[in-house]
Structures are given as C-alpha cells and as structure tokens.
Design brief:
The protein has 198 residues and is mainly beta. The protein has one helix and eleven strands. The chain has a four-stranded antiparallel sheet with strand order 1-4-5-6, with no helix packed on it. The protein has a three-stranded antiparallel sheet with strand order 9-10-11, with no helix packed on it. Strands 2-3 form a two-stranded antiparallel ribbon.
Length: 198
C-alpha cells in the first residue's frame, strides 16, 4: 500500500501545484467567502500572525512535511496561526490565510507569532460519516487528501463558499488527528458540532 500511496501523493501534489499556478481569477460563481483583509486583526481562530520579514512567501501543506501538496501564502497576508504539531524534529503551525481562505501547515519558524496551542487539543473531535475530501482551499475542485470514516476529525472553524455546482456549502477547517491532515471539508459529513466562523 505504501508503494502505491507515495506515487499517488506525488501526482496529487504535482496536479495541485500546477492547478494552483495556473488557476484563473475567481468568477462571480466562485467568489471566496466574505473575509476582510487586515493586518492580522481579524477576530476568530488562532493568533494574529504573518510571515517573517525575510520571506516573501511560504508554502502551506496538507501534512506537516515538505512532501505533501501545498499552496502559497504571502508576506502581508492576514494569517492566523491556529495550532502546532511536531514532525521530523520541526514545529509546524496550521495557518489560515484570511486574504485567500487558504489553510495548511507551514514551518513555525516562518511566522512572526507562532501558535502555542497543540493541534491535538483544538476543536471538538468527531468523525466523518463517509470518505471525505480535505482541501487546502474550501472548494470541491481543488486538490485533496482523504479522511476516512473512523478517523478522528476535529473541526476548528467554518466558512461558506460557493462550489462548482453553484451551491453554497459550509466548509469546516479540520485537523484529521488520525493522519495529521489539515484543510477544509464539508461540514455536513462531520459528526462534531459546527464550529464558530473562521
């Protein structure tokens, strides 16, 4: 299984990187949730943070490692440091970019104000009712990893976004504690209560 998973993950990461770099501007039907840009001033989940001055941008990943799919956040974006995990001897923070509605893990050393909250205790644990896609951006057409029934999934916050089917869906920012996957999943498939707004 592992020999099949790694090439599949690499292909998914390549597809996500290609789709991200070639993604067109959002149409009216794909408008991102109404979030207000600022200087780490948005109330909600996490610590107000940003990228350190020596970085123009940083990758945010599905998993706390360099090998998983990623999107890019930029210096000057309103970034919330939500929680932290340790992986391969490094601290990784789950971040939410309020400007782009991107979420994922980035190295804690990249942030001006890292999180002090462990990702193992944040959110209300539940499970997913069916195999579920977890995205770095709240949209069903974006790259994904899979959370499976039986995985402990903790929703942290929620937001609405219009999906490709033209319907508005409620997405939760989640941490799959079983596999350390982070990203957005449909609220309707998570057994835990709907969390507060991101």
């Amino acid at each position: 299984m592992r020999n099949v998973f790694k090439p599949a993950l690499a292909l998914a990461a390549l597809a996500l990187a290609t789709a991200t770099s070639l993604a067109p501007a959002a149409s009216a039907a794909e408008q991102r949730p109404a979030v207000t840009a600022g200087s780490a001033n948005i109330t909600g989940v996490g610590n107000g943070s940003g990228l350190i001055p020596s970085l123009d941008s940083a990758w945010v990943h599905f998993l706390p490692n360099y090998d998983s799919g990623h999107l890019v956040v930029n210096r000057g974006d309103d970034i919330a440091a939500v929680c932290r995990v340790w992986s391969n001897g490094a601290a990784w923070d789950l971040v939410l970019d309020h400007n782009k509605s991107f979420a994922g893990y980035t190295l804690e050393s990249y942030l001006t104000v890292p999180s002090t909250t462990d990702c193992g205790v944040i959110g209300t644990p539940g499970t997913v009712t069916t195999q579920t896609w977890v995205h770095l951006y709240p949209h069903a057409d974006w790259g994904y990893l899979v959370a499976n029934p039986g995985d402990t999934v903790a929703p942290i916050c929620s937001l609405y976004n219009t999906d490709t089917d033209g319907r508005v869906h409620l997405f939760d920012l989640v941490v799959d504690r079983t596999n350390q996957i982070a990203g957005f999943a449909w609220d309707s498939v998570i057994t835990a209560p709907t969390p507060a707004s991101c």
